[in-house]
Write a structure and sequence with these properties.
322 residues, alpha+beta, Nucleoside Triphosphate Pyrophosphohydrolase, seven-stranded mixed sheet, six-stranded mixed sheet, 6 helices, 19% helix, globular
Length: 322
Amino acid sequence: MERALLAFKGSNSFRRAGGSVQSELPMQELLGGNRARILPFRKGMPLADDDGSLCLLSAKHSLLRGGPECRADPYAYIGQLAGIPIFVVEICGDPDDSRHEDHDPFDAMIHTHPLLPEAATFRNLRGLMGSLSTDEAEIAATGKALLNWHRNARYCGRCGEATMATHEGWQRRCSGCGVDHFPRTNPVVIMLVERNEQLLLGRSHHWPDLMYSLLAGFVEPGETVEAAVRRETMEETGVQVGDVAYVTSQPWPFASSLMLGCRASALGSRVRINPVEIEDAKWLDKSQVLSLLCKDMPSMRPPARGSIASYLMHGWVTDRLE
């Protein structure tokens, strides 16, 4: 079985902007320098090569030299890698691009552009998780989440007037009431629910055929992580949970979430699925989970490599879950 991978876990090399690495130079001066590199996105997909690595372009590249009509939003400065300023920008390939919703995270479609470098295409970030380096994964996840926020925050939630990007792309200010808006992250619990050496897996309605994974759900206002684990497990499967322990987390830019991985002990094994919430749920023993992760179960498919679900399941089946 391949080694477990946790994508988007962060790196020691990439220095994030938005607070600790505010530039002393104006944005246009940074962009005009020879060192700056830009990661373009189109329809929420980053630019990558055939090997699954990101394509960072010079600001002078022909793809980026068009006017504002070529971009859905202004450039955003996300940080520095080895002293090199890194920016992200959403490219408009056609008039509808600027109004698009985030693409289906399971969509394998590849987008191109006549001005792209050879062998470079806009590709689904979910499909790139297993090939990106640690630095690349953090850059891509940060850029995707930030650009998604810009797209959804173009109008003020207080007065309805248009907002403008400020602070190098990390804030938006309302042109009407002057209120400042900031990027947000939505907390999501994802839980490894176990009982008697068995693991509870579920299947959502919108997932690819045969895919099963751990149960998950959004944390509600005023709710603790532990309470969210118990509520979501009960709502989806009817299984009552007792002890809950935090394990690890993963930024999840689909669209802007933070996955809080937990281990939970079930108090019973009877499953009564809520068909509104999920399509199916079942208990698997360790040999079955191992077969699933090794893709040896024709009737089921595992979660994507690099996801926190895959990481937790690998740890559980190999008794290495801390």
